Amino acid sequence: MLVIKDLYAKVEGKDILKGINLTVNAGEVHAIMGPNGSGKSTLANVLAGHTNFEVTHGTVTFNGKDLFEMSADVRAKEGLFLSFQYPVEIPGVSMVNFLKTAVNEHRKYHNQKELSAGDFLKLMREKKAMVQIDSQLTNRSVNEGFSGGEKKKNEIFQMAMLEPKLAILDETDSGLDIDALRIVSNGVNMLKNKDNATILVTHYQRLLDYIVPDFVHVLYEGRIVKSAGKELAFELEEKGYDWIKKELGE
Amino acid sequence: MEDQNKLINEVTQRDYRFGFVTDIETDTIVKGLNEEVIRIISAKKDEPEFMLEFRLKAYRRWLTMKMPEWAHLKIPVIDYQEIIFYAAPTQQAKYESLNEVDPELLRTFEKLGIPLEEQKMLSGVAVDAVIDSVSVKTTFKETLAERGIIFCSFSEAVKHHPDLIQKYLGMSVPYNDNYFAALNSAVFSDGSFVYIPKGTRCPMELSTYFRINAQNTGQFERTLIIADDDSYVSYLEGCTAPMRDENQLHAAVVEIIALDRAEVKYSTVQNWYPGDKNGKGGIFNFVTKRGVCKGVSSKILWNQVETGSAITWKYPSCILAGDNSVAEFNSVALTNNFQQADTGTKMIHIGKNTKSTIVSKGISAGRSSNSYRGLVRVAPKAENARNFSQCDSLLLGDTCGAHTFPYIEVGNSSSVVEHEATTSKIGEDQIFYCNQRGISTEDAIGMIVNGYAREVINKLPMEFAVEAQKLLQISLEGSVG
Q1: In chain B, what residues touch A49 (CB-CB under 8 Å)?
Q2: pTM score, two decimals?
Q3: Burial code of B403-435, b = ≥16 C-beta within 10 A, e = fewer?
Q4: d(C-alpha A56, C-alpha B116), whole Å
Q5: If you placed Cys at A72, which of A49, A229, A234, B100 could pair as Cys (CB 3.0 to 4.6 Å)?
Q6: Average of pLDDT values for A180-198?
Q7: Is the pLDDT score of A26 beyond 60?
Q8: Would you call B229 an interface residue with chain A, using a CB distance cutoff of 8 Å?
């Protein structure tokens, strides 16, 4: 589904990603862990197409298509979803209007008929129930005045609405209390199937108690320095990232 | 950023949608301005003596006045001797049915999307369409007449209701109020007149579409709205103009008078030709709009969405004379390319316990300049007056300018005046967030700007709100950075 080959990227002139290689297949859950500043969020943003990040080398194919040939909105419509670490507020734009536009843009792209207002609201009710989001939230402006937990739940709700092929969850667990974490994780687990894939970007092993990864990768100084099964997360939790650094001979 | 700016350029340099010229015969008089021209205008309109006197008084006063220079605008010199002060379609008769109307004219309206046909008017909008100064077709007049509501062209009102005109003309905007108001008072050609009788609630939104058509024709509209005791009316004004290379002068006057407990809501969506992307051409819009809350507990609301004109000089104002009267000014002013706008309001509190609210949302893109200028004056006798002002500016890109000039004068200690102002830019992060959900940058900017303006757009009547939203999206789609 996603094939990253020797990817280099910089932000504000500074090299952040220095040769990433990663392959994600349908049905898989990958966790990308690493200390602060290792390039985790940069990777997520580069994949989603943020213009602040400049790709200097390497290729990424997404379902066989060249990802860098597509603008950010086209990537989204091709099925790439980013759950933001810090979802932005858009004052005056209602969640309903925002999501209806987004859903219908996806449908138009895939030559499907746009949803009527009634069908859209019905779909929204179903998905709200699925991810247990407070129905009041969708009556408000996009993320405006939402608590940290509400924003993250709202991200998962949008993911449920858009049904992406590849979901990248950037630090979705940060700032969540244990109940919110459970709700968010349940949502992600429910949306998981054999045809889609998930990349979890996280600091902590905690999230992985709820969403069990098939692979864990350690990102350090812009490269994946270690990949293994889910047991790697426990090892990291126990020994810390210093252990990796030592192993790398630093 | 680079890409975004490129895209912004593409979307903001779209051609003006309503740029076409209707080929209909017009009856014009020689260009230039002098007493003789004013006499001709008055004679052509078959006006009573008091109207001619009003015009001449205004003209003589105008000669002694100077063009105002305090606005944050660069206005080229206007040669008034090069302007034709009267133009009317030659087919002036009123029509029994649409079949009799010049088909060319109807096509013009069609392109503008004005639903002139009565069968299309189930939405409850009566349209008094004005093409180059003369009212061509008034709909729903009979329905209104049953309730004693008068909604007609200004000229008709002069003929049939001279007493009302004589009593109220110049009450809000005196003939000598300012340079452009004096000019308008001297040469105004036509406009709309509304009278709502005591205790009457106007059952539909009244609407006028103005359209400037003939070349080199200044348009000087005059609108007078009188709401008698305990009445209510909502009035809509929408404007578009065809493309022109030369600048066209528009100096309108709108007067509103609200008597005891009356309420008038005046909404404008203004989309006159703003000039091309190099700043060539476009309408000069120098308008004086003022309402007097004359009666106790009366209420006047100005709602406006302004996206057009090369230069806008416009301050819809309220004089809160009656005790407990209420006034609101809600405005979205959008400028792009080389457009200049100096717009705002004046709230003059005279009565006790009067209350005014100002919400101004400026949006600037391209190389445009967008200023808010507002005066809140509380007279010494206006005890317990309240004003709240909120002025927000949104910048798209880094070549435009936004300015706020608030003037506050409070003459007593029991009144409270509050002013809040913000300036913001559309965030790249907001656009990226929309992109990531599958929404294109162009649509995202439209959505964010509409969200920003929502507070004001929500005050517009439904059908206008939809049009305003589209207009913001079309005329803009600006920048980040």
Answers
A1: 432, 435-436
A2: 0.78
A3: ebebeeebeeeebebeeeeeeebbebbbbbbbb
A4: 59
A5: A49
A6: 92
A7: yes
A8: no
> Is the minimum CB–CB distance between B469 and chain A shorter than 8 Å?
no
pLDDT digits (tens, 9 = 90+) for B77-123: 888 887 777 765 543 334 455 565 555 545 545 555 555 443 333 23
Q: Which residues of B touch A102 (CB under 8 A)?
A: 434, 437-439
Q: How far is A212 from chain B (nearest CA, A)?
A: 26
Q: What is the pLDDT of residues A194-232, one digit of tens each?
A: 999 999 999 888 889 899 999 999 999 999 999 999 888
Residues with Cβ < 8 Å from B421, sequence gap 6 or more?
Answer: B390, B391, B392, B393, B404, B406
Q: Which residues contact A207 (CB under 8 A, 6 or more apart)?
A: A31, A172, A173, A181, A185, A200
Query: Smallest Cβ distance to B439: which of A52, A102, A141?
Result: A102
Tell me which H or E stretch contains A60: strand A53-62
Mean pLDDT is lowest, of A223-227, B23-27, B344-348, B440-444, for B23-27
| Cross-chain Cβ contact A82/B436 below 8 Å | yes
- Mean pLDDT calculated for residue range B259-271: 92
Q: Which residue carries 């809000």 as its tokens?
A: B172
- Between chains, do B433 and A87 touch, taking CB under 8 Å as contact? yes
Cβ of A92 within 8 Å of Cβ of B455? The answer is: yes
A144: pLDDT strictly greater than 50: yes
Which of A11, A52, A90 is the best substitution to test chain B (most B C-beta atoms within 10 A)? A90
C-alpha torsion B276→B280→B281→B285, nearest 10? 90
**Which pLDDT does position B308 carry in this prediction?**
80
User: Which tokens in the block code for residue B364?
Assistant: 């600037």
ipTM here:
0.95
Chain B residue with minimum CA distance to A83: B436
Whether the pLDDT of residue B349 is over 90: the answer is yes
Residue in A72, A92, A162 closest to B432 by CB = A72
Structural domain that includes position A126: 2-247
- Within its chain, how far is the Cα of B416 from the centroid? 29
Per-residue confidence band for A180, with pLDDT thresholds at 50, 70 and 90: confident
Quick check: B428 and A76 CB within 8 A? Answer: no
The domain that contains A103 carries what CATH number?
Answer: 3.40.50.300
Interface membership of B479 toward A (CB under 8 Å): no
Look at the alpha carbons of B155, B156, B161, B162 in this order and tell me if their dihedral is positive or negative. positive
Residue type, A84: F
DSSP three-state, residue A178: helix
Does residue B323 contact residue B366 with C-beta atoms inside 8 Å?
Answer: no
Contact B241, B214 (CB under 8 A): no
- For chains A and B, CB pairs below 8 A equal 83
- What domain count does chain A have? 1
Residue pLDDT, tens place only, B368-390: 889 999 999 999 999 999 999 99
Q: What is the DSSP letter of A115?
A: P
